[in-house]
Design a protein that fits this description.
The protein has helices at 2-23, 29-59, 74-85, 117-123, 156-163; strands at residues 65-70, 90-96, 110-112, 126-131, 150-153. By secondary structure, the chain is of the alpha/beta class. The protein has five helices and five strands, in the order ααβαββαββα.
Length: 164
């Protein structure tokens, strides 16, 4: 974002100085330099204020969206990395998978079995549940309707388009 801001300010100043040069209006150098420096200062302060406010709003607990992922496999690990790579208000709680099928340590915890997902979502205000398991899989035997959570089934096509 800083690069776009710098390009915009530079373009504005070049257009302003080009206008002053082409039309040869009589402005004092002090006025032109003061105007340009105050304009740059105002833009920088505006951006800093904007970033401070957005970071403050994102860091508030009520704004963040908690999410979990059903299934622990390569696709779920890529999904977690892709969703958390973007700076957003998502907070990843962990995975739900049968403990017998998890053979490695993960940076994020395996919270429970698949049957524990919906009660955990209700109790912990989980807003999004991503499933890397197929919807017609026999491994999913929980009741899917939750009032506050949306359940999204993720395919390989989603991850391929995210990575491109």
């Amino acid at each position: 974002m800083a690069r776009k801001t710098a390009k915009s300010v530079l373009m504005y100043l070049l257009i302003l100085l080009g206008f002053l040069f082409l039309y040869q209006h009589l402005y004092s150098r002090f006025f032109v330099l003061m105007y340009c420096s105050l304009f740059i200062t105002a833009v920088v302060l505006n951006r800093l204020l904007f970033y401070w406010i957005t970071d403050h709003v994102r860091s508030r607990k009520g704004i963040e969206r908690k999410m979990v992922i059903l299934g622990y496999n390569e696709m779920s690990k890529k999904l977690a990395d892709n969703l958390l790579a973007e700076k957003s208000n998502l907070r990843f709680e962990g995975y739900f998978e049968e403990y017998s099928k998890v053979q490695e340590l993960s940076y994020y915890p395996v919270i429970g079995n698949l049957q524990d997902c919906v009660p955990y979502a209700r109790d912990n205000n989980i807003r999004e549940i991503y499933s890397t398991l197929s919807p017609n899989s026999s491994r999913i035997s929980t009741r899917w309707r939750t009032k506050r959570s949306s359940i999204l089934f993720i395919s390989d096509l989603f991850l391929i388009s995210k990575c491109l």
